[in-house]
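Figure 2 data, in text form.
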Amino acid sequence: MIKFRLEGTEHIELIKLLKFTNICGSGGEAKHIVEEGEVKLNGVLESRKRAKIRSGDKIEVFNEVIEVE
């Protein structure tokens, strides 16, 4: 499990979160896995690359879970 703390903002875009947590090596790779249906936001498939992720959200991708604080 990865814990990610939002600092100085109320949200982060999904593809940026995937890049900042090193789930993906680039923004292009992050866009691709979202488009392929590999990402769940709070247990629901998420297809919006720029979905706003807020404190309390949980992202599941591959076998990783990211908890946003």
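Caption note: Helices lie at 14-20, 27-35.
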